[in-house]
């Protein structure tokens, strides 16, 4: 792993793309739900929880949270 300059976000395109996707997803969530913008943190946590509990094609259909914790996720 190597560090990138704070003044040069273009040097870390993968992280910047992920951050942009998260922001767009949270904005869509707030807009579609009609929730006020001051609930940004809660909306972001909800968005990330949903994303991490959803199977990902890049992980061969595995659930990120299950991989992180090393055990199947209880979705009941």
UniProtKB/TrEMBL annotation:
Keywords: RNA-binding. GO terms for biological process: DNA integration. Gene3D superfamilies: Ribonuclease H-like superfamily/Ribonuclease H (3.30.420.10). Residues 1-72 form the Integrase catalytic domain. One of its GO terms (molecular function) is RNA binding. PROSITE patterns: INTEGRASE. InterPro entries: Integrase_cat-core, RNaseH-like_sf, RNaseH_sf. GO terms for cellular component: nucleus. This is BQ2448_7592 protein. It comes from Microbotryum intermedium.
């Amino acid at each position: 792993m190597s560090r990138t300059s704070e003044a040069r976000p273009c040097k870390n395109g993968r992280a910047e793309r992920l951050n942009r996707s998260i922001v767009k997803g949270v904005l869509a969530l707030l807009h579609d739900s009609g929730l006020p913008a001051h609930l940004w943190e809660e909306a972001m946590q909800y968005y990330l929880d949903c994303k991490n509990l959803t199977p990902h094609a890049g992980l061969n259909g595995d659930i990120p949270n299950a991989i992180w914790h090393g055990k199947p996720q209880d979705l009941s």
